[in-house]
Amino acid sequence: MAITTLGQFIIEKQADFPYAKGELSRLLRDIGIAAKLVNRVVNKAGLADILGQQGDINIQGEVQQKLDVYADTQFINALKMGGECCYVASEEHEEGVDLSANTVSKKAKYIVCIDPLDGSSNIDSNVSVGTIFSIYRRFHADRPIQEEEILQVGRKQVAAGYIIYGSSTMLVYTTGCGVNGFTLDPSIGEFCLSHPDMKIASRGALYSINEGYYSKFPQAVKKYIKYCQEIDPATSRPYTSRYIGSMVADIHRNLIKGGVFIYPQTSNHPAGKLRLMYECNPMAFIVEQAGGKASTGTTTILDIQPQTLHQRVPIVIGSKEMVEQVESFYL
Ligand code: AHG
Ligand code: MN
Ligand code: MN
Ligand code: MN
Q1: Fewest CB atoms within 10 A around its CB: which of 82, 186, 310, 312?
Q2: Any known ligand binding at 37?
Q3: 7: annotated binding-site residue?
């Protein structure tokens, strides 16, 4: 089978993107480069002195892992050197990183929101982790960046994607014309098209939720969990419970097999745990482009007007009919 590398694919698909003159292509290339650098370290984490805690507490109130910081540095450096990005909002930085002063990127059109390392709690146990990115266009390229350009509604994303550092390393992204998956071939150091035009089944038999928080869940979610566990062969129930603790890995599995992932509000996370700008919006864009659905249980994720950079929202995401089934319990 002929190999199509990520670079070739982006150029071929250039036509889908009327007003980009190659900038978005170069931006996606820059992200691919950083992904390979992070992958190299993730693949030998036990040998590369990259396990364990960096020790600092990030804006999320989490103890930063060494790999959180390493990945954050790699992606920000790649975006800075690439010159196509003027501003990076990262999980690991309270304020965004303004690259517009950098002469190379002062006319840069794109803003990137990124979760450099998703699933940090899984690093030391060698369980799949990921990176999530979301790309917006600036409104004006000739003045200081405005907050309204950063806090754009998810529907305005021009591209979104994730890398999953798993049994193989994949980069999955959309520019609004469907979803395509690329698998890293380490022997040539290229992401190669392996999952063209990815679609999520309208229903599946997998549900993903941290049931340890059952007592803290809203009634609707408690009812849905019971629904999943009822015996009804006609709807493939009881479903199978699969929860990895890395959002990217849980959602990627459900994208491939069909299923629903839920991180609802709980009594200790009243707005949910996952962040809108660099976890929920990009994953919602990808899953919607693959034919699935993403909501808070009551509101479509991509229609939420962000108020703050690290804003958290509840999320129900995956196979369309399964998301709608969860939503029915919120009514
Ligand atoms: P991150 O490692 O980027 O902070 O994200 C971790 C998130 C997400 O990946 C995962 O779905 C969720 O945390 C798991 O949370 P619980 O451990 O509370 O289930
Ligand atoms: Mn994350
Ligand atoms: Mn993270
Ligand atoms: Mn984190």
Answers
A1: 186
A2: no
A3: no
